[in-house]
């Protein structure tokens, strides 16, 4: 790539965006206008807001002792809670009504009916002998009836409960005074909570806690929104305006065009996110000052004041926010650019925003759930890792955050580069760039797939097969949840892993045998598959303690696995269910149909890596997350073996042997073989022998096998590798 031409394209696209009034308004105008308007609206609504009065009925009030009083006359002919009990407590007016226990208020059904009609929020039931029990130093039970589903009823219940607790303290104080006992007699220890942030720095960390919830969410959403609309305009918009062809016949490479557009979208995304956050921060600061001023002099500053509660994050956290925004904007810009190329018009491009939001929102909402903390797994999850890291930095927990900064930045950058590579592939496909608008007819489309089927599936059909496997696995697990676990295990493998690729190969390909690689490779590759699995087993086992330390298995899952092991009657059944059936079903699906389809849409190694990733991802969904790394690495070896030998059988032999060794491990836990019989870690001589043996067998396998030529795509299927005639030599 030539940076001079990238700079030229970037300048051209940036000028076009800055000339667009809609883009200028979305990036600069909307943040400046929106948040001040929202701030003033919140202020006015807060000033005009009045809490509804809370209605409390005290049934059996005549039985209450006179001292200390729980109820007293309010001066208007009614009653209310004693002033010393409710002072500076209830934020809304509370109307109390005394009722006799002999009347209708003693009936729970009448109480429920009154609450649902809004006539009362809480009913307090005083027992008839409450005075006698208190005098006899007994514990009478006072019932507080409320509706948990009603927010006002629940809030009133909490206030009344606190008032009665204060009344109880007053009773204890009278008893202590009568017995001439000090207050320390019943409260020997005083507990004082200390906010260290407020004690040391003079400012509460509650403001940072508020920003730690808001800023990561807004940063992600604004970065996504700021990237999507410019990407649509730069791709689908150029198609509509007819300027895409002019750009494509220029001397610039496709990759240079994509990078230039990518930098433009990334600049718009970062600017949108920063301006929105800055405008929101200033609005919240002004709103905090105004709210503090409305409380009177002396309330404008100090711990616990609105100004303190809305204090902005530190400069260090703000600087890290800018740093994290760069790879995050790059990731969203590349994804939006690749999706925008698929759209034929700006109207169609906007339809793609909904699924993109549906994928992004769970990743960001996950960070708002209690108990979700930054760990090695979440640091590698797109969007989630950035949000959790930013949350730690805003809370100034730098000690915990510093060990995850590099993994989060690297993983997000890698995801962005992969998405950018995808976008470049989209720009190199003529069928993607210039596909015409068509009316979709499901019956005609299905007949086309069957009539014009090729010898192997397309990349889209391979991904559709994987999606079908995932969907069937979910619904099958629901259907067989109450069945015999062993039958469910076998049925699940046969139904949701084996059946989809077999059915799709028979219906959508003209050569199921070639698609599923059902050919005899010879005895040597078959033996090498068995030997390679045995040699790699000691080596791959060394990953187990690392994964278990980083991602421990929850106790509930451990108990479920132990229950499944106890349900298996003998070793032969275990080998059949956990080795033979999974080896056949998973190899037919992933190294058969899916790998064959991916080879038509990407290079051979890209197809191998992607199929291995999908193989590992399936194990996360149907088994344990801890199996992802081992399954993905083994998937790379299995994919290479399938391509090299042109047969599925060596992979089945490898897979069967690997799983069988895992099943037979407990029965073979001899001291001469394992150095750790719980984690099944081999002794170091066996590990060294496994490294040497696996390297030798891989070398032999690379020489005895010969990969077939690159698969040709089915007729009419987009491959993602097509180029225009003028761009055939460009990379």
TrEMBL record:
Keywords in alphabetical order: Membrane, Transmembrane, Transmembrane helix
Tree of life domain: Bacteria
Subcellular location: Membrane
Residues covered by the ABC-2 type transporter transmembrane domain: 21-419
Chief location category: membrane
Transmembrane segments: 21-42, 210-232, 262-287, 317-343, 355-372, 404-424, 461-480, 486-508, 520-539, 571-590, 602-622, 652-674, 680-701
Pfam families per the UniProt record, alphabetical: ABC2_membrane_3, Rce1-like
All copies of domain CAAX prenyl protease 2/Lysostaphin resistance protein A-like, residue ranges: 572-661
Record's protein name: ABC-2 family transporter protein
